[in-house]
Amino acid sequence: MAKLHPFIINFVCYLCDLISYLDVMNSQSQIITVEVSIDKPISVVWETWANPIDIMLWNIPFNDWHCPKVVNDLKSGGRFIFRMEAKDGSDGFDHSGIYDTVIQHQLIAYTGDDGRKSEINFIAHGDTTTVSETFEPEIMNPIDMQRDFCQAVLNNFKKYTESKIA
């Protein structure tokens, strides 16, 4: 069997590293958007989104998860920490960061502690409100898993908010 020249081996390793790097950069350059329309006026939607007690009840992607801790200083420069975890303790994480821009009843933009940017837009249509969340994906999990996770949280937010009696 012929031996490969060390230059060729190094070059192949370099190409593999480059492909991995480009895959990471490509996933970071993608933007994920999820959206939900809620049959409540924007004032109710905004208050439900902002209130820590409400957040603990709607910020849940699956029935076997919960959000046991919320800190939410909803103002530009304010800090947030949402603890999300499986009820059996098998998985969990803190979703946390700093609010960059907060415009009541319109926009929340923030930077997560991991440096990723997110933007949540609130659009009133009479007594219905559209909530649209756009965020930079992280590199550890597939894009569609992140989108589905966030969409599940928004769907739960819709269900919870629409069940509130104003």
How much helical structure, as a percent, in the residues? 25-40%
How many strand segments? 7
Question: Main sheet?
Answer: 7 strands, antiparallel
First-last Cα distance: 78 Å
CATH architecture of the largest domain, by name, is: 2-Layer Sandwich
* SSE-based structural type: alpha+beta
Number of domains: 2
Give me the CATH superfamily of the largest domain.
Answer: START domain
**Beta fraction of the residues?**
25-35%
Task: Write a structural description.
It is a single chain. The protein is of the alpha+beta class and 166 residues long. It folds into two domains: 30 residues; 133 residues, Alpha-D-Glucose-1,6-Bisphosphate, Chain A, domain 4 (2-Layer Sandwich), CATH 3.30.530. The chain is built from four helices and seven strands, in the order αβααββββββα. It has a seven-stranded antiparallel β-sheet with strand order 1-7-6-5-4-3-2. A hairpin with a 3-residue loop joins strand 4 and strand 5. It is globular, with a radius of gyration of 20 Å.
Question: Quick gist of this model?
Answer:
By secondary structure, the chain is of the alpha+beta class. It has four helices and seven strands; from the N terminus they run H-E-H-H-E-E-E-E-E-E-H. It folds into two domains: 30 residues; 133 residues, START domain (Alpha-D-Glucose-1,6-Bisphosphate, Chain A, domain 4).
